[in-house]
Amino acid sequence: MRTGILRAFAGILTLANLAAFLVVSYFIWEHAGNLDWLLKLPWNSFLTELSDIFKLTDLSAASVWLAWMCLSIALCLVWFFLRISLANALPSSQGESPNPVEVRQVAIESQPEFQEKLKLLNRWLS
Hints:
Helix content is 74%, strand content 0%. The chain has 126 residues and is an all-alpha fold.
């Protein structure tokens, strides 16, 4: 049960992050007017600019946005492929797992000493 709650929570966080990323991207696109702003981003140097965070210097918003985009895409891909692999790894519950009541009933009926005890119990109860 705990893993189901954690998986649901991870899914909600992943989808919330993706939704926030898409909303921010839409506002940037609305302000810029077209998608040329993607080409103007510092694609080859944003990681070195992010290292300035340890020096407590100013960071460009483009570098932060690119890092967020890369992490969001990586997070969504990992979440998606983990869901697929977990779905394939877990057995389906349709007919594969035996009913515990039936297993116990077969075990009780196969041993005569339990049958005698059940008959005695039934006599006492009636």
